Amino acid sequence: QVQLVESGGGLVQPGGSLRLSCAASGSIFTIVTMGWYRQAPGKQRELVASFIGGDSTDYSDSVKGRFTISRDNAKNTVYLQMNSLKPEDTAVYYCNADIVVPAGRMYNYWGQGTQVTVSS
């Protein structure tokens, strides 16, 4: 069994910063992709930033230059540093990963989500 546990959400003023963390635990052979999605009320879930294979990353155009994804492979953890936050960044942020388990199969996993609210 694999779990993704997010932390670091909260309320921040426009222009502020937050750092999200997502730690993967359980029966992990290797992590193929790992990153962040978000879903605002009434909108579809969308990619924010992700490691998509090796050291390659993908960012939503709406966050480029403001958000940075990083990781600690030894801890199976990814981080999302969010700077210059805007009210439109308000959403539930979800961690997502494609993980190969010891049996050799790859599965897609989601975290429980963490709320980020940008408001004055």
Notes on the protein architecture:
With 120 residues, the protein is mainly β. It is 0% helix and 60% strand. It has strands at 2-7, 10-12, 18-26, 30-39, 46-53, 56-59, 67-72, 77-82, 91-100, 106-110, 114-118. The strands form two sheets. Strands 2, 4, 5, 6, 9, 10 and 11 form a seven-stranded mixed beta sheet that branches. The radius of gyration is 14 Å and the shape is elongated. The model has no long low-confidence stretch (mean pLDDT 97).
Give the structure's gist in a few sentences.
This protein has 120 residues and is an all-beta fold. It is built from no helices and eleven strands. Strands 2, 4, 5, 6, 9, 10 and 11 form a seven-stranded mixed beta sheet that branches. A four-stranded antiparallel beta sheet has the order 1-3-8-7, with no helix packed on it.
Shape field:
elongated
Q: Class by helix and strand content?
A: mainly beta
Low-confidence stretches: none
Q: How far apart lie the N and C ends?
A: 40 Å
Task: State the major sheet.
Answer: 7 strands, mixed
Pattern of helices and strands? EEEEEEEEEEE
What Rg, in angstroms, do the CA atoms define?
14 Å
Average residue-wise pLDDT: 97
Beta content comes to over 45%
**What's the number of extended β-strand segments?**
11
Number of helix segments? 0
Secondary structure: helix percent: under 10%
